[in-house]
Amino acid sequence: MRTLVWNASFKRAFKQLARQHPQLRTKAQRILQQLSEDPAHVTLRTHKLKGKLAGSWACSVDYDTRIVFDFVTNPESGEEEILLLTIGSHDEVY
Q1: Of 33, 7, 3, which is closest to residue 87 (Cα–Cα)?
Q2: What is the CATH number of the domain that holds 11?
Q3: Mean pLDDT per segment of 10 residues, for the chain of length 94 residues?
Q4: Which end of the chain is more exposed for a tag (fewer CB within 10 A), N or C?
Q5: Rounded distance, CA 51 to CA 64, Å?
């Protein structure tokens, strides 16, 4: 299980998503839990990004909503963590 690190822009985007689409809040929380447990799980449709987001990864919450994240190493513990960058519609995050 990896630790999820929420950066400031992800927190803002998550709050905005929850306000605009309240029905997605619990689904997004379930997806974040699944991401923490197994980032490569088939239901997440995790994929590496190209272009300006090269090096980052994305997974799907639903048909149009994506979570963009990076795998990072915690300098203190040496453990791999997941740095959550943003969440939103396909067009918003890419």
Answers
A1: 7
A2: 3.30.2310.20
A3: 94 95 94 96 96 96 96 92 95 89
A4: N
A5: 20
